[in-house]
């Protein structure tokens, strides 16, 4: 069957988390590097569409192509391992420890950042004719995005940090739903369709994705955005990473684990002696 029942993909999530923890350092870094590079390219693609068409909805509808490519190629995003890796420990799989989870998260963060930064440099070269000219319209827009989503939050103080954190929570609620949704089908077309839907929601609503931001903000600085690396990390990347962790682990991994893997006994409403058992 094309559709996989929730109890089955809940077990697949735990197996995937165990696989992430056990993966070698080399494979983890390569897969996370490529995931960051591909997602960054999809972000550049989406910004280009938005600038050239003036229609952000069209950009949002097409952005998920990058997410689908990297997932089908077996590459890893930090947002996904935030959700999957801890489940292997929570399910008490033999040999699974929080030390292994943190190792995986650290390696994937480094790989994603390196991949996204590579794409950022490449696209900055393209947008400026090898840094010999002023940024084109897309490059200017990327710089403006960086300013708005760092200095804009900073200007609001604590309320700004709260807002960016909640946007990050909501982001990985949707993105990790896309990761899990791919497990709901055994066909490539089914996986793509299931992944596409939540990714559109996250992107169109302007939620904060730590790996997309690893591209947008470094490239924004290279393209003349009036903000600093400190602004980027303090008012965006750090709270976004934390929010992505909370969103993926609680609203996706934790909830599916609690109800589809650790299913409670069903109520007996008839009862052998005419009583209702809760």
TrEMBL record:
Official protein name in the record? Putative formate transporter 1
Natural source organism: Pacificibacter marinus
Domain of life (superkingdom): Bacteria
Which residues, by range, are in coiled-coil regions? none
Question: InterPro entries per the record?
Answer: Aquaporin-like, For/NO2_transpt
One GO term describing the cellular component:
plasma membrane
Q: What keywords would UniProt list here?
A: Membrane, Transmembrane, Transmembrane helix
Task: Report TM segments.
Answer: 33-51, 57-84, 105-131, 151-175, 196-218, 238-258
């Amino acid at each position: 069957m094309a559709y996989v029942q929730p109890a089955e993909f809940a077990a697949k999530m735990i197996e995937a988390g165990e696989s992430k923890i056990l993966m070698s350092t080399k494979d983890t870094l390569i897969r996370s590097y490529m995931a960051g590079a591909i997602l960054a390219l999809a972000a550049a693609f989406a910004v280009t569409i938005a600038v050239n068409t003036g229609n952000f909805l069209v950009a949002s509808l097409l952005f998920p192509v990058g997410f689908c490519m990297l997932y089908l190629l077996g590459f890893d995003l930090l947002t996904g391992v935030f959700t999957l890796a801890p489940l292997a420990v929570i399910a008490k799989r033999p040999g699974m420890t929080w030390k292994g989870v943190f190792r995986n998260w650290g390696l994937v963060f480094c790989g994603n950042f390196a991949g996204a930064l590579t794409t950022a440099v490449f696209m900055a070269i393209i947008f400026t004719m090898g840094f010999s000219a002023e940024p084109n319209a897309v490059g200017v827009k990327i710089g403006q995005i960086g300013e708005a989503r760092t200095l804009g939050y900073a200007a609001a103080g604590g309320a700004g940090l709260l807002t960016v954190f909640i946007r990050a929570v909501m982001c990985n609620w949707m993105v990790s739903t896309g990761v899990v949704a791919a497990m709901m089908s055994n066909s490539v077309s089914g996986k793509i369709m299931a992944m596409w839907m939540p990714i559109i929601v996250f992107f169109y609503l302007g939620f904060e994705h730590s790996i997309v931001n690893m591209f947008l903000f470094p490239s924004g600085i290279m393209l003349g955005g009036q903000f600093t690396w400190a602004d980027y990390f303090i008012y965006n990347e750090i709270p976004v990473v934390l929010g992505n962790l909370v969103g993926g682990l609680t609203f996706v991994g934790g909830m599916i684990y609690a109800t589809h893997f650790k299913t409670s006994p069903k109520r007996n409403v008839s009862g052998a002696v005419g009583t209702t058992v809760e």
